[in-house]
Amino acid sequence: MSVAPNIIWCERCNFETTTAVIWGVFKYRFSDGSEIQVERSAGWCSACNSIQPVEKSTDRSKLLKKYEDLQKELARLQKSFVRTLLKFDKREIADIKYECQEIEDQLRLLDVRRGPQRCLTCGSTEIAVIDLPSIGEEEIRKVDFCHPGCGGMLKIRKSHIRYSMNFPKKVYDVEGNRILEK
Ligand SMILES: [Zn+2]
Ligand SMILES: [Zn+2]
């Protein structure tokens, strides 16, 4: 399978990168060896001087609120035996359970995490999260972020280059430091 990333460039200088840098399998590994997904986003890393995958900050109270809402919804769906026989509800229940598991994982990370968010490429904490807009084919949109040190507006469009989906797995400790695997 292959997918085409988006191209991000600066309209003032020759800076250009693609969203493929953010793709991949990123996992935190706990001391007991268990692993969970790294919640990440595109971000500007001052040390890399480029757009990199960065850790997303997570708000415990927001996570707990969402968890509570999902549990209520789950209870509502499971209340009626007849309803749970419906294929649609079964899938919805499975989706909710999956989401709940993800939140449990994130809460488990928050319990042990002490330091600030890091760049997942170099480990620097000098990062700024960038919200990339979704774009259609042949569409060009502004990214709500200026190129640091240059001041040019960043723009985004789809590329036509396709990348294979075989990503190497990247493993981090609970503080977001890359664990080098031998
Ligand atoms: Zn620039
Ligand atoms: Zn970096």
Write the layout of secondary structure elements.
Elements: E1 2-3, E2 6-10, E3 16-18, E4 25-29, E5 35-37, E6 40-45, E7 50-55, H1 60-79, H2 81-85, H3 87-112, E8 127-129, E9 140-146, E10 153-158, E11 163-164, E12 169-172
Parallel strand pairs: 4-12
Antiparallel strand pairs: 1-11, 2-3, 2-10, 4-5, 6-7, 6-8, 9-10
Q: How do you describe this structure in short?
A:
With 182 residues, this protein is an alpha+beta fold. The chain has helices spanning 60-79, 81-85, 87-112; strands spanning 2-3, 6-10, 16-18, 25-29, 35-37, 40-45, 50-55, 127-129, 140-146, 153-158, 163-164, 169-172. It has one domain.
| Basic shape | globular
Q: Major sheet: size, sense and barrel closure?
A: 4 strands, antiparallel
Radius of gyration: 19 Å
State which percent range the strand residues make up.
25-35%
Provide the succession of SSEs.
EEEEEEEHHHEEEEE
Helical fraction equals: 25-40%
Which small-molecule ligands are present, each listed once?
Answer: zinc ion
Read across the widest sheet, the strand sequence of neighbours is 3-2-10-9
The chain-level structural class is: alpha+beta
For the secondary structure, the number of strands is: 12
Low-confidence stretches: none
What distance separates the N and C termini?
28 Å
| Average residue pLDDT | 91
Number of domains: 1
> Count of helical segments?
3
List the defining traits of the structure above.
182 residues; alpha+beta; 3-stranded mixed β-sheet; 28% helix; binds zinc ion
Describe this structure in words.
- The protein is an alpha+beta fold and 182 residues long.
- It has one domain.
- 28% of the residues lie in helices and 29% in strands.
- The chain has helices spanning 60-79, 81-85, 87-112, and strands at residues 2-3, 6-10, 16-18, 25-29, 35-37, 40-45, 50-55, 127-129, 140-146, 153-158, 163-164, 169-172.
- Helix 1 runs antiparallel to helix 3 (87-112).
- The mean pLDDT is 91.
- The structure holds zinc ion (2 copies).
- One zinc ion binds next to loops.
